[in-house]
Amino acid sequence: MARIFIAIRFNDDFKQSLVAVQNSLKKRGVAGNYCPCGNLHLTLAFIGENFDLPAIRKAVDEVNFEPFDITLGHLDSFPTKAGVIWCGLKDPKPTTALARQLRERLSANGVTYSTTEFVPHISLVQHPSAIIKEIEVPQASVRVEKIFVMKSERINGELIYSEI
Fold it and tell me: Which of 26, 69, 125, 136 is the most buried (most CB within 10 A)?
C-alpha cells in the first residue's frame, strides 16, 4: 500500500551535497538506514495510506508562493526511540510558511494529515548507531518553485519515492 506525502524535491547537485554529508557520517562510523540519494526530499505534510487524491491535488493547486531558495544548515537529530539524523536549513522561515499554507489548504479541502509539529528537515539516516552532529555541511542551495505529491511504496523490498 502506498503512503502519500507532499514534499520539496531537489536537483542532483543539491542531493550530492547531502550524500557528501552522509559519506562523512559513514566515515565517522555511523551505521544505520541511510536515505538513498534518489529519495532525498523535505516533507511538508505526511498524509499516509488513507487519502483522497483529487482533494489533495486541489489543496496543492491552491497553494500560492513566490519561489525561494533553501540552503543547507546544520545537522541535528530527533530524540525518537530509533533516532534520525537530519539536516536543517539556514533560514527555515520560507519553508515553514509554505508548510503552514499547505496544511491550511489540506484542512480546508477535508484532507487528513499528520499534525505533528512541522520542523523543516531532510532525513539522512534512520536508526543511526550513533548521533553525530559535528559534521561540516556544504553551502548548497536549491530553488523551490513547486511542491510535489509523492508516494512511498516497497518495490522488491526497496522503499521507492515517486511523484504522482
Answer: 125
